[in-house]
Amino acid sequence: MADADRVQRPLSPSVRYALAALTALIFIFLFMPLVIVIILSFSPLTYLAFPPPGFSWRWYQSLASSQEWLHALWSSFKVGIPVAMLSAALGICSALVAARAQVFWRAGFAALVAAPMMVPHIILAIGIYPLMVDVRLTGTFAAIVLAHTVIAMPFVFITVRSSLQGYSPSLELAAMTLGATWWVSFRRVTLPMILPGVVVGTVFAFTASFDELMLSLFLTTPETNTLPRVIWAHLAYQVSPDVAAVATLVLLFSCALMAMPIALRRRGAKLELNG
Amino acid sequence: MISLSRRSLLKAGAAAGALAMPAVARAKPDHIVVATPGGVMDDAFEAAYFAPFKAKTGISVVKTTNQYAKLKAMVDAGSVEWDAMDCSGEQAAVFSQQNLLEPFDWSMIDQNGLLPGTVNPNFTLVDIVAGVVAWNTSRVGAAAAPKTWAEVWDLKRFQGDRMFWKKPSQTFEAALLADGVAPDKLYPLDVARALKSLDKLKGHISWWESGAQSAQLLIDGEAAAGYAWNGRLAGPKANGAPVDFTFNQAMFLADAIVIPRGAKNKRESMELIAVMLDPENQANFAKRVPYGPVRSKAMDLLEPARRAMMPTAPENFSRGTLVNGEWWAKNGVDAAEKFNSWMLS
Amino acid sequence: MSLTAGQTASPDTLPARPGPVRVWSQRPVYVLLATGPALFLAALFLLPLAHVVVKGFAAPASGPGNYTRIVTGGPYLPVMLGTLETALMVTAVCLVLAYPLAFVGSRLQGRLYTVFMALILIPLFTSVVVRSYAWMVLFQRSGPINQTLVTLGFIESPIRLLQTPFAVTVGMVHVLLPMMVLPILTSMRSLDGTLLQAGEIMGASPARVFVRIFVPMTLPGASAGIILVFISALGFFVTPALLGGARSTMIAVLIEQQAVDLLNWPMASALATMLLVTAVLIYMGYSRLTRRFNEMRA
Hints:
CATH topology of the largest domain in chain B: D-Maltodextrin-Binding Protein, domain 2
Mean pLDDT of chain B: 91
Low-confidence stretches of chain B: 1-23
Structural class of chain C: mainly alpha
Distance between the termini of chain C: 6 Å
Number of domains of chain C: 1
Number of helices of chain C: 15
Mean pLDDT of chain C: 86
Largest sheet of chain C: none
CATH topology of chain C: MetI-like fold
CATH superfamily of chain C: MetI-like
Strand content of chain B: 15-25%
CATH architecture of the largest domain in chain B: 3-Layer(aba) Sandwich
Oligomer: heterotrimer
């Protein structure tokens, strides 16, 4: 989607200000709890009190001496990245079928692929656990990756399907009538069109795995503890600012992740809203 | 000593096992897996119990989260990853009722001077928790501070929300005590009467879901007074948070240790339990978390100030009631249904 | 999305060769594409689910006892209705906030657009449990929100915000908003600007172009957002458990209670089955509705 090709009409000033104000308010809403977490992470107290009565690095110092958190964060990435990739592959396939195939089982298939979102994780965990025992996968990374993919795949499916519905299939048909194979038409025509949807769905899939607790409780071992498990264990007895410090570090990390494309992108900013 | 390779030992063991006694011939594990609640409890378990166990037997303990449903899933699937688990006494009764536990080999453990109720066919209690009348000292003055559940129920006594666990267990007991039921006449619980008593607080209750949340509600003053477990308040109180509590009319609960049915290292788990019930180790645990030892001799090893913080100190223990896990194991489902319906009303 | 519609959309780019033959020959491709996900879900979703659903009929006595218990009384149906109500509310709030936000995002370009995307995505990486505790701090009577309201004179003394449906809704919207914004944003950005231009050339007012062309064209994104948010909201556990009061119990909380505390798996299974059937019915009804709309649009 080349930005320059898009045609935009300037907005009237009142609409512009209203939108800018609303946007600012929504971002304040989105970041308010995160700011609270950051503030609490510098509390000198062992319990939560807001505002904290002073400033201290103690929770970061205690984190630095603990391998547990780093290990858990690493485990969460080792699970989340394959989950996101597997979900993307399966989700794209499913979305193509649900949006394009002219078959009688389309509606049923679409419901099946979306259904894992509708089942509480504890129920899935109870069901998947004996299965993993039967195939001797309990405690392996494969077990948790497969289980997380079940719940993460619908996110890719639903977003990609909406991307496919966003334009008519005439372009693909055109390509194929001109002699392109299905695969070539998919790669050259379809994929570029749905790519934003794929990226968004894949990010959703990753975060679904990144914050999943229940399946992790059933399927990981102490050696493969993921971050939500460690957070859970730390919050079990007392709410202490050490979890806030961990959350702040994860936040910092995700900011760095997000900043990469900004740093890489050389093109200057252009705010058409003011156009 | 005759040198034998581990492999040939194993072979010999397997041969012996095939003949007669598999349990004896099994090689000693280098670690066992114990499911624990996390946080400060884990640190205390590690220091007071698991480290001495390692020193004594050479076996290390790997900790994992004690997700209750996972125990059932593992036993049902015949693939038990844990060798022992810490859970509440009530929960142990539920597991026991569903036949999910290994029977204990009590012959391995000295039973002298254990608190009554500690010894059960398939679980042991290891420490006693008190569910107490608690209040926020900046919201409730010293004069108005509640000493009984009836005083917590008295909305004129002081302003502010009352807080309780968002579960029927222990909330019903408090409601009945507030309504004047004698502690020794609590069980079987009169559920209808408990709900009627709770009706009086309708609209004035802050519910907590997790123990950590209870301390937070009270520290923040979101609730003025109510029910919490003593261990969750002792730390903040010592560190200057505006909270206080009394053992008067306390409800006593227990941490229990169970061995899932089909656990791979039952013998080692029993050895661990023997270590956990050792007076010195019990005292070391109580120095870290203010939950009372079940071994009376452990009490003598504590400083007087620390001993006064223990739910099982005689002067505290005599002022409260033991929660009846058996009753809850039998009636929990019905009680939860009635409680949840009441919540919506 | 019928074949004829596709052809008439751009008739001059299509050569005389008959299309339908080729389209029919695509069927094996779609069967092949469906096989992977279908097998995966059969093994890792349907099989485990069947295992659990069977339990719902197994105890305390074999038969539909748990289902009759759900239907004939107790808290179960009211909680289910309350859950649907909360999910609808959360979805509505998300939609109202997300649509203008996505509109703003769709007009940004270059680095500014990347920053916008980052700001939407960053909150997703913070644990929902941690965020719930942050909301507890914000919402408490001595918390920043109450203090601000008192200082500004909106209220005389701090009011109860925690343990209200309001707190639950806010907490859930915070978690789910990105799932509404991003699908809408992608559909807005893939929109063909020439169509809007055409509308204006035909003499339509900007407002009319927005309502008659822009909004309908972005509906697939909105409908994906609605489904993602609504279905996720139905199964929410942590936020209602920590921020909700007596009446904010949601079905996932009951299911968890039955499964973990009471170890009453048959009842947990029956409740989960009820939730799944309700959600699938809503999903299929909704899909049919949006498909009909898409066809009308085409």
